[in-house]
């Protein structure tokens, strides 16, 4: 049975276009990053492991189930469990984007445990925020080649501290999500700008 529906191909097109945009910003060097979108039947369209995310073709997007098992014989992203854990936790989340952006990587080196974003108008680009008068925390997790263990660390944090908009993996990159691919791209672009502000401010504040 062919499980690839029109919806799958439409989400695949969105992820391919997102990849071109993200690559145009320099946020997915080499074959880094991974992207996904949830389908209405609960399955997930996700990037095949090891592909260049700025040069994705339809063949580079594959189908997995909600537990991350391949449904089409292809090899899903090495970080699939980070995607499935977020979809499991947040029923409204429909897309997850993971770039290896310079600013997320640098921010993790400078700020170590979390990035605090406060009093920026652009925070309103994040879902659920309607004023600059707010403070959000983007946690930074230690990098780990053991992805199940990393997924558990993220889950533990979310159990203890509640909902967040994104997280950084130290020396690695950013995960963010949203109610559509477009929403998630907006989050990515806003967060990159805000990380840039914090990194430059940090430089200014140094003696
Ligand atoms: C090119 S190294 C990057 C990988 O180790 C990983 O972090 C990554 O983001 C891409 O892995 P992938 O398996 O292609 O989804
Ligand atoms: Zn990665």
Automatic annotation (TrEMBL):
The gene is mtnB. It comes from Methylomonas lenta. GO terms for cellular component: cytosol. Belongs to the aldolase class II family. MtnB subfamily. Binds 1 zinc ion per subunit. Keywords: Amino-acid biosynthesis, Lyase, Metal-binding, Methionine biosynthesis, Zinc. Pathway: Amino-acid biosynthesis; L-methionine biosynthesis via salvage pathway; L-methionine from S-methyl-5-thio-alpha-D-ribose 1-phosphate: step 2/6. The keyword Zinc applies. The lineage of its organism: Bacteria, Pseudomonadati, Pseudomonadota, Gammaproteobacteria, Methylococcales. The keyword Metal-binding applies. It catalyses: 5-(methylsulfanyl)-D-ribulose 1-phosphate = 5-methylsulfanyl-2,3-dioxopentyl phosphate + H2O. Zn(2+) binds at residues 98, 100. InterPro entries: Aldolase_class_II_sugar_metab, Aldolase_II/adducin_N, Aldolase_II/adducin_N_sf, MethylthioRu-1-P_deHdtase_MtnB. Its EC number is 4.2.1.109. GO terms for biological process: L-methionine salvage from methylthioadenosine; pentose catabolic process. It is an enzyme of class 4 (lyase). Catalyzes the dehydration of methylthioribulose-1-phosphate (MTRu-1-P) into 2,3-diketo-5-methylthiopentyl-1-phosphate (DK-MTP-1-P). Residues 13-199 form the Class II aldolase/adducin N-terminal domain. This is Methylthioribulose-1-phosphate dehydratase. Its cofactor is Zn(2+). Gene3D superfamilies: Class II aldolase/adducin N-terminal domain. GO terms for molecular function: aldehyde-lyase activity; methylthioribulose 1-phosphate dehydratase activity; zinc ion binding.
């Amino acid at each position: 049975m062919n499980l690839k529906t029109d919806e799958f191909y439409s989400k695949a097109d969105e992820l391919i276009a997102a990849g071109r945009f993200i690559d145009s910003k320099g946020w997915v060097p080499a074959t880094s990053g991974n992207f996904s979108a949830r389908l209405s039947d609960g399955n997930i369209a996700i990037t095949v492991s090891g592909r260049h995310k700025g040069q994705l073709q339809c063949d580079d997007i594959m189908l997995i189930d909600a537990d991350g098992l391949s449904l089409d014989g292809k090899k899903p992203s090495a970080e699939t469990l980070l995607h499935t854990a977020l979809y499991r936790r947040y029923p409204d989340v429909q897309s997850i984007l993971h770039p290896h952006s310079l600013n997320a990587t640098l921010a993790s080196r400078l700020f170590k445990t979390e990035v605090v974003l406060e009093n920026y108008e652009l925070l309103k680009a994040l879902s659920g925020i309607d004023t600059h008068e707010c403070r959000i925390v983007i946690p930074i997790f230690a990098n780990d080649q053991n992805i199940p263990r990393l997924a558990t660390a993220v889950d533990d944090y979310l159990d203890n501290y509640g909902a967040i908009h994104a997280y950084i993996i130290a020396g690695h990159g950013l995960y963010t999500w949203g109610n559509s691919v477009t929403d998630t791209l907006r989050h990515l672009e806003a967060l990159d700008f805000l990380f840039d502000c914090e990194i430059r401010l940090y430089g200014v504040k140094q003696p």
